[in-house]
Specification:
The chain contains 3 helices and no strands. It is an all-alpha fold and 79 residues long. The longest helix is centred in the N-terminal third of the chain and has 32 residues.
């Protein structure tokens, strides 16, 4: 039982670390250089450059990425 809890804790930590490094890469490298990423992130960047607004004080890239990922997560969860 403890082994499973430790494994889950490590997986959560790795996911949070990935999110932090991904957001740092977008904000420090891709966004200032006007380079678009691929996949959901690139699509969110494209929408951000077209509409160019912030939502609730957050970057529209972050909100767009979240809103695009929610339906994908729901679809993946069902399968």
């Amino acid at each position: 039982m403890m082994k499973q809890a430790k494994k889950t804790g490590i997986q959560i930590f790795v996911a949070l670390l990935f999110g932090l490094l991904n957001s740092a890469g977008i904000n420090f490298f891709l966004r200032p250089a006007s380079i678009y990423g691929s996949g959901v992130t690139g699509f969110a960047q494209l929408l951000s450059s077209v509409f160019g607004t912030t939502i609730f004080g957050l970057s529209s890239i972050a909100v767009g990425s979240f809103l695009i990922n929610v339906p994908l997560i729901i679809l993946a969860w069902r399968n």
